[in-house]
């Protein structure tokens, strides 16, 4: 397995290899191929503006409707959630909400430095607290690059390789970016992931986190 590359203080994150197993990773890839036409250009939020497409900032496509795979993935996250919140010192209520999407980065695809939980008009009564990214792809692997770069407050960083069947988790407030991906043009050649955000109520709303 490719170990994360780090410099200076290591940003807070947890890596779990073999998270779902090869069979379920293969199911996700097959689902992506069967729903290729339903992928749309990814959007992003800022503190000042609502969601928009800007490929100079984020160049990827995503799929929001995952059918029964969504509930199955959420259940797998629940199994490790207590471990993740403990190791990352993230407080969550006993019942959480999850956002889940499937994402593909093609040749040249990237996402510039950002945080998943900045103040923004996203229309939710909750905020992102924990970010999880799960990697899968066609076999054999057909792309290079696409590392997740996590930044620490002292200007250090850690690069996490998008290894097959790997889950990485980190606080949603952490600054991070997706490094450019290099691959051929076919849809199946890209870098695929499941992005999952575990949300908590905004401050002043119940239930309060218990930690």
UniProtKB/TrEMBL annotation:
One of its GO terms (molecular function) is peptidyl-proline dioxygenase activity. GO terms for biological process: cellular response to hypoxia. Keywords: Dioxygenase, Iron, Metal-binding, Oxidoreductase, Vitamin C. It comes from the Bacteria. Residues 87-200 form the Fe2OG dioxygenase domain. It holds the Pfam family 2OG-FeII_Oxy_3. Its cofactor is L-ascorbate. SMART domains: P4Hc (SM00702). InterPro entries: HIF_prolyl_hydroxylases (IPR051559), Oxoglu/Fe-dep_dioxygenase_dom (IPR005123), Pro_4_hyd_alph (IPR006620), Pro_4_hyd_alph_FE2OG_OXY (IPR044862). This is Fe2OG dioxygenase domain-containing protein. It comes from Methylosinus sporium.
């Amino acid at each position: 397995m490719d170990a994360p590359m780090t410099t200076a203080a290591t940003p807070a994150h947890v890596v779990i290899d073999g998270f779902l197993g090869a069979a379920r990773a293969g199911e996700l890839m097959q689902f992506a191929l069967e729903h290729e036409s339903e992928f749309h250009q990814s959007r992003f939020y800022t503190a000042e503006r609502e969601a928009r497409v800007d490929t100079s900032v984020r160049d990827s496509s995503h799929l929001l409707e995952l059918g029964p795979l969504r509930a199955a993935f959420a259940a797998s996250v629940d199994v490790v959630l207590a471990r993740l919140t403990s190791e990352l010192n993230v407080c969550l209520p006993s019942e959480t909400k999850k956002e889940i999407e499937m994402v593909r980065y093609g040749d040249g695809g990237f996402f510039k430095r950002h945080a998943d939980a900045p103040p923004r008009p996203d229309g939710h009564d909750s905020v992102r607290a924990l970010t999880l990214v799960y990697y899968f792809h066609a076999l054999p692997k057909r792309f290079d690059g696409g590392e997740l770069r996590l930044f620490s407050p002292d200007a250090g960083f850690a690069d996490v390789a998008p290894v097959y069947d790997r889950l990485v988790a980190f606080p949603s407030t952490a600054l991070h970016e997706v490094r450019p991906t290099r691959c051929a043009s076919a849809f199946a050649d890209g870098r695929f992931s499941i992005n999952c955000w575990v949300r908590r109520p905004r401050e002043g709303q119940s239930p309060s986190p218990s930690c």
